[in-house]
# Entry
Amino acid sequence: NAGVTQTPKFQVLKTGQSMTLQCAQDMNHEYMSWYRQDPGMGLRLIHYSVGAGITDQGEVPNGYNVSRSTTEDFPLRLLSAAPSQTSVYFCASREDGLADEQFFGPGTRLTVL
Amino acid sequence: AQKVTQAQTEISVVEKEDVTLDCVYETRDTTYYLFWYKQPPSGELVFLIRRNSFDEQNEISGRYSWNFQKSTSSFNFTITASQVVDSAVYFCAPHSRLSFGAGTTVTVRA
# Structure
């Protein structure tokens, strides 16, 4: 199993550009989520999904869109990139039991100039 | 409101010392799990341990031990006889759809 994969690993954008961060998992997990990690802020939840066709907002959803058309994929779209979105982005997945831990992708380091 | 708090920002110890990390989870839920994750300097996030809200017994796994006190919502995690490879950021996280705690940076000096 590849686990959780994310592409790209690194990305530089100009302010106002849009892009999609890709996330895929091959563990048949229903639950997937996106976090951003900034220094001193821990991991803040952006959006999550409890299954195909179902998504919801986390703590910091503004400026990001998600969709979940399949169990495997959960892309994160930046609509109009801003310097404040410079961060490391992690995608995660897990089973949907209370005791289930999350499996994380390797992260995407995004810089917005 | 539900909230995870890791009051310790940084801890620095000498190898072989014990390290205890604190986490407080404020919630009205009566049944929940809390998790600890490790992020070494290489950047990946790795699951370490989990603990439920209805069991306050201490648990030990190798050099890791942890306990949970429901009265104070405190979930403490101890690394015994620390090693340089334990240097990392440690995150406390709830199962529910919340952000993680801010993390505690542990530095173990040789």
